Amino acid sequence: DDLADEVRAIPGVASVPLATPNMGADTGIIQVIPEEGPQAESTAALVNELRDHHDEWLDTYGVSLAVTGFTAVGIDVSQLLLEALVPFGVLVVGLSLILLAMVFRSVWVPIKATLGYVLSVGAAFGAVVAIFQWGWFADLLNVHHAGPVLSFMPIILMGVLFGLAMDYEVFLVARIREEVVHGADSSAAIRRGFIGSGRVVTAAAIIMFAVFAAFVPEGDPSIKVIALGLAVGVFVDAFIVRMTLVPAVLQLLGDRAWRMPRWLDRLLPSFDVEGEGLAREIEHAHWPADMPNARIAATRVVLPGVGRVPELRVAEGEALLLPVANPLSGALAGVLSGRSPIKSGTLKVAGLLVPERAATLRGRSAWATPASIDEALSDRPEMLILDLRGWGADLRSRELLEHARSSLHADATVRRDRDTALTVVVIGTRELAETALPVATSIIVLGDPVDTGATATIPESVTTAHGGNA
Prior knowledge:
By secondary structure, this protein is an alpha/beta fold. The protein folds into three domains: 2-67; 84-262, Multidrug efflux transporter AcrB transmembrane domain (Multidrug efflux transporter AcrB transmembrane fold), CATH 1.20.1640.10; 315-463, P-loop containing nucleotide triphosphate hydrolases (Rossmann fold), CATH 3.40.50. The chain is 51% helix and 14% strand. It has helices at residues 2-8, 41-52, 54-61, 70-104, 108-133, 153-181, 186-213, 221-253, 262-267, 276-283, 329-336, 358-363, 373-377, 395-418, 430-436; strands at 13-21, 28-34, 296-303, 307-308, 312-314, 318-323, 344-349, 352-354, 365-368, 383-387, 423-428, 442-445, 461-463. Strands 9-10-11-6-12-13 form a six-stranded mixed β-sheet, with helices on both faces. Strands 3, 4, 5, 7 and 8 form a five-stranded antiparallel β-sheet that branches. Strands 1-2 form a two-stranded antiparallel sheet. A hairpin with a 3-residue loop joins strand 3 (296-303) and strand 4. The protein is elongated. The chain starts with a helix and ends in a 7-residue tail after the last strand.
């Protein structure tokens, strides 16, 4: 009774109709009725104040206090959702910035898309508050009483609107970027892209708006608030943001809308959404003109942090030697096996354009030493990087180099019957390469890095016959 009297004395408590222990006298129940409803701010303050007395009453009465019930649980859930709202919003906005930057290779497009999404969400929240909390148009929309909205409504609204907003953004802007990629100027690309995809976005938005709006006049109150927010959000995002603001902002930005800092372009992975890579592959289908069937062809290729690669042509049956002393060798070996990027230029390896087909090239290449060459050849690669760094003139090395030559010769015989080809790239010295490669293999030696102000020349081939002279 003393504990019940203390509870009655707390501000906000209307009554304590029940205060009794259980049969074992180890647990007691005190029923508290607040002065206001379960969604009132004073009720939440009352729950928190009761919990604040936990230590005091534990010392005084020797009981551990826990506040529960539907009202307390609802307040706890609302608090947890409120705490999760900001991290969720940051995650959603951050993801939209990163993903759109990767897809459109632009800084301004994702910023514009994200700000448009925030505007749509803000408009949806504003409409919900104005109607369901302030009572605007309550009679028109059959809202019988104003009050707090559902605690989980903001997260649901933000998640659904994010998906729809990004869909509309990608539908519209992808079509505009496609025109830019194919050479149209900014104004023409916006006009064609808007005409081509605007109807799709409009039709999709009308369908979603009609579905959500249908629940507003006669829907359940818990559904009505979510449906109204989504209907307003879709309307604002599709018809105001995407159909009006997006073309206007892109027109103001002009060509700057499709630019990205070089450091960021290298950092973010590339997705060929608009078919840029396919267009480039078609353009270079018969490149290079002087050797269309070259197994390796490089023109004006620049490797990050290393320099420009000399003009390079390696025909079928030839091998490429990357001298150990050449600073390009290690980086170029990674590029030729699809494992490293290039900074600029045109490179074709085993018929695959790099970097567009680097992943495919990586699957068709192998990296081996004389000790592991049999395992590498068992996968039937089209490109073999034979690493001879660290191998010398000792007996064991000579034996393994001779074994590598035999394995490569046997592999060439099998491939000849199957009409397939293997191109070998050797990292090492000329002497070791001649020992490891089959007899009469023509070797192309990589030249030194090219001064960017100089004109590159195609290196001359060197023919090896039983380790013969150049």
